[in-house]
């Protein structure tokens, strides 16, 4: 099973989309193994978006990401990293597929409701960045027998 990080961004908080976003991952069949609200310190934003620091829009993204607390979630499942990225949709929300979170719920480039890890390596680093080991929970999800067959797990 893979684990991946989701952040519900300030536009999702301000627009009251926490429940809707969470529901999309739950109904997909993913398992929520960690969740907390937090304010992003400068160092965390700089590390998390290190690949964007030289971009002209980075200052705006940093200000946006620190404008309210965010919700950090860790989701688990078979191929969870790619499954979550498909549920989320592409970065430029107004061009994202209908049915995806960004496609259904947003129009912006910066304001696209959620962050999701983009690879298994990134996911491992990002889950560790946002969660202490004791903040990730292991438990049996009883509905799994109706989500996967044994050979998929
Ligand atoms: P993703 O979040 O889809 O993995 P990136 O890692 O490229 O995409 O970008 C991180 C975030 O920075 C995006 O989700 C978006 O909020 C913001 N961003 C990316 N590109 C732009 C842009 N051209 N203009 C404004 N904001 C952007």
What keyword list fits this structure?
alpha+beta; Alpha-Beta Plaits; 4-stranded antiparallel β-sheet; 17% strand; binds adenosine-5'-diphosphate
Question: Could you walk me through the main structural features you see in this protein, from its secondary elements to its overall organization?
Answer:
By secondary structure, this protein is an alpha+beta fold. The chain has a single domain (2-152), classed as Nucleoside diphosphate kinase-like domain (Alpha-Beta Plaits, 2-Layer Sandwich). The chain has seven helices and four strands, in the order E-H-H-E-H-H-E-H-H-E-H. The protein has helices at 10-14, 18-28, 42-48, 58-65, 80-88, 101-105, 120-130; strands at residues 2-8, 31-38, 70-77, 114-116. A four-stranded antiparallel sheet has the order 2-3-1-4. It starts with a strand and ends in a 23-residue tail after the last helix. The chain binds adenosine-5'-diphosphate (ADP). Residues 52, 57, 61, 91, 109-110, 112, 115, 118 line the site of adenosine-5'-diphosphate. Residues 52, 57, 61, 91, 109-110, 112, 115, 118 line the site of adenosine-5'-diphosphate (ADP).
